[in-house]
Design brief:
With 443 residues, the chain is of the alpha/beta class. Helices cover 49% and strands 16% of the residues. The protein contains 17 helices and twelve strands. The strands form three sheets. It has a six-stranded parallel β-sheet, sandwiched between helices. A three-stranded antiparallel β-sheet has the order 7-8-9. Helix 8 (218-228) packs across helix 9 (242-257). The longest helix is centred in the first third of the chain and has 25 residues, at 114-138. The protein is globular and about 55 Å long. It starts with 5 loop residues before the first strand and ends in a 9-residue tail after the last helix. The model has no long low-confidence stretch (mean pLDDT 97). Bound molecules: nicotinamide-adenine-dinucleotide, 6-O-phosphono-alpha-D-glucopyranose and manganese (II) ion. Manganese (II) ion binds next to loops.
Length: 443
C-alpha cells in the first residue's frame, strides 16, 4: 500500500535543532512521505530567522513539500499527523540561571539534573500541557513526539495530568552514545546491534548489546569504557566540545562503581557531584558556551543562507538526533515495529520498581502503538538510586500541580545532588526569584 503523506508541525520552530530535523524530513520522503512541514513558536522574531533559511533548504531539497511557519496555535495544530516538540521555556537566559544558581551554593548546576533540572521542569510543564491541549483540540488523532526537556519531569507531568494523551517523551542521549559505541567497535552504525537498557531519563544503564548474530559486544565496550570512558576521536560535533569530552571521560569512573553495565553519562551528576562542582566555572557554564557558539552559529548560518538565497555548503545536516524522532514517527505511521528507547509508564516492565514511575526502556513501536519490553528485576544499587531520583521528580510535579513550596523544597532535598535540606531551601529561594515570570506561585 502506498504510504500516506504526513503533515508535521515542529513546535519550538526557532530551536537550534530545527534545521537539522527539517533536513532529515526532506531527505527521507521515500520512507516517510511528507505533505507539509509547519513551524510553530511563541517567539515570532526568533522563529522567522530559522524559518526563512529552512524555506530555502526545503525548496532546494524537496520543492514538493509545503513549508510554512506561524505563531498561531490554531493554524499550527490544525490538520496535522505529528507534532515534533522541542521548546525551551525561558530560553538560554534561564538555562544560565539553572546552572549558576545551584553552583553558587556548591551544588551541581545542570540543564536537566538536580535543582536546575527541577527549575526547568517547573517552567516547562504548563507549556507542554498547553501544546497537548492544542493538539487534542485541533488534530485529535495526531501524536506528539516530545524532546522538550527536562524530559523526565515533563513525562511525569504528562502521566499525572494527561495520562491518555498521544504524547511520547524521548531523549537522544542513548542514541548519541550508541553511535559512539558503534565507532568504538568499528561497526559504523548503531543499527548493527540491538540493546537492552533501563533507567529513568538521563539516569540509566545498558545491560546488553548484541550484534545481529547474537554475539555479545558488552565485554569489548566495557573494557574500552574502563580504560577511556566514552572518549573517542571523531570529527567535531555537539558531543565533542570540550565540556562534553569531560563528560564522556567520566564514564571511566562511572563504570568502576558499577562494572556489570554501561552507564549513561548523565549519572556523573549524581555519582560524581563533588568533582563536577570542583571542575565547574560558576561564571561561565555550558549555557554561556552555547550562547557564544551554537546559538550564534545557527543564527549566523540562517542569515547567511537567506542572504545568499541558497543553502549550498551549509553545515545544517541530519544527525542521530533528527534521525531518531523521524524514525519514531515513521514507526507510528507505518508499523515498522522498530525498537526504540522511550520514556513510558513502568507498568510492570521493571518488576521490582514503582509501577507508576516513568522509566526509559526499550519499546517496540508499531502503527499507533508502543509496546514496552519486559526488563525483569533490577539490582539493589540501581533500584535505590532510581527510587530516590523518581521521588524527587514526582515531588517536583506535585509541587507544580499543588503550587506547594513544601513539595518543591522536598523535591530538591530528595535529589542526590543536594547535600541537605538547608542548602535545598537556599537554592529554592533563589530559583523562585529567578523564575518569577514562569513558575506558578508556591505557597
Ligand atoms: P532553543 O532555545 O534554541 O529553542 C527553543 C525554542 O522554543 C525557542 O525558539 C523558543 O522561542 C521556543 N519556545 C519556548 N517556549 C515556547 C512555547 N511555550 N511555545 C512555543 N515555543 C516555545 O533551544 P534548543 O537548544 O534548540 O533546545 C530545544 C529543546 O530541546 C530544549 O528543551 C532542549 O533541552 C531539548 N533537547 C532535548 C533533547 C533530549 O534528549 N530530550 C535533546 C536535545 C535538545
Ligand atoms: C543530550 C541530551 C539532551 C540535552 C543535550 C544538551 O543530547 O540528551 O537532553 O538537551 O544533550 O546538550 P547541550 O549541547 O545543549 O549542552
Ligand atoms: Mn536527553
Amino acid at each position: 500500500m502506498e504510504r500516506k503523506k504526513q503533515k508535521v508541525v515542529i513546535a519550538g520552530g526557532g530551536s537550534t535543532y530545527t534545521a537539522g530535523i527539517v533536513t532529515m524530513l526532506l531527505e527521507n520522503t521515500d520512507v516517510f512521505p511528507i505533505e507539509c512541514i509547519k513551524l510553530y513558536d511563541n517567539n515570532a522574531e526568533r522563529q522567522e530567522k530559522v524559518a526563512k533559511a529552512c524555506e530555502i533548504i526545503a525548496r532546494e531539497i524537496n520543492p514538493d513539500v509545503k513549508f510554512s511557519w506561524t505563531t498561531d496555535p490554531e493554524e499550527a495544530f490544525t490538520d496535522i499527523d505529528f507534532v515534533m516538540a522541542q521548546i525551551r521555556v525561558g530560553l538560554y537566559a534561564l538555562r544560565e540561571q539553572d546552572e549558576k544558581i545551584p553552583l553558587n551554593h556548591g551544588v551541581v548546576g545542570q540543564e536537566t539534573c538536580g535543582p536546575g533540572g527541577i527549575a526547568y521542569g517547573l517552567r516547562t510543564i504548563g507549556a507542554v500541557i498547553e501544546m497537548i491541549d492544542y493538539m487534542e483540540k485541533y488534530s485529535p488523532n495526531a501524536w506528539m513526539l516530545n524532546y522538550s526537556n527536562p524530559a523526565a519531569i515533563v513525562a511525569e507531568a504528562c502521566r499525572r495530568l494527561r495520562p491518555d494523551s498521544r504524547i511520547i517523551n524521548i531523549c537522544d542521549m542513548p542514541v548519541c552514545l550508541e553511535e559512539i559505541f558503534a565507532r568504538i567497535l568499528g561497526l559504523g552504525s548503531r543499527k548493527k546491534f540491538d540493546v537492552r537498557y533501563y533507567g529513568l531519563n538521563h539516569f540509566g544503564w545498558w545491560t546488553s548489546i548484541e550484534d545481529k548474530e547474537g554475539n555479545d559486544l558488552m565485554p569489548a565496550l566495557k573494557k574500552y569504557c574502563a580504560e577511556r570512558g566514552y572518549e573517542e576521536f571523531t570529527p567535531a560535533g555537539q558531543h565533542k566540545e570540550s565540556s562534553w569530552l569531560d563528560t564522556m571521560r567520566a564514564a571511566k569512573q562511572l563504570i568502576e562503581i558499577e562494572p556489570e553495565t554501561l552507564p549513561n553519562t548523565y549519572l556523573k551528576y549524581y555519582l560524581m557531584q563533588d568533582e563536577t562542582v570542583e571542575h565547574a566555572d560558576k561564571n561561565y557554564t555550558r549555557a554561556n558556551e552555547i550562547m557564544d557558539r551554537r546559538e550564534k552559529d545557527v543564527f549566523a548560518e540562517c542569515d547567511r543562507i537567506v542572504e545568499a538565497g541558497t543553502a549550498k555548503g551549509t553545515f545544517f545536516a541530519a544527525s542521530e538526533h533528527s534521525q531518531f524522532i523521524v524514525e519514531l514517527a515513521c514507526a507510528l505511521a507505518f508499523n515498522t515495529k522498530e525498537r526504540f528507547l522511550l520514556i513510558v509508564p513502568n507498568n510492570g516492565a521493571i518488576e521490582n520498581f514503582d509501577q507508576d514511575a516513568m522509566v526509559e526502556i526499550p519499546c517496540i513501536v508499531g502503527k499507533d502503538r508502543v509496546e514496552p519490553m519486559s526488563i525483569g528485576r533490577i539490582p539493589t544499587f540501581q533500584k535505590g538510586l532510581m527510587e530516590q531520583q523518581v521521588a524527587s521528580e514526582k515531588l517536583a510535579v506535585e509541587a507544580w500541580i499543588e503550587q506547594s513550596y513544601q513539595k518543591a523544597w522536598q523535591s530538591l532535598t530528595m535529589n542526590k545532588t543536594v547535600p541537605s535540606a538547608k542548602v535545598a531551601k537556599e537554592i529554592l529561594d533563589d530559583l523562585i526569584e529567578a523564575n518569577k515570570e514562569f513558575w506558578p506561585p508556591l505557597n
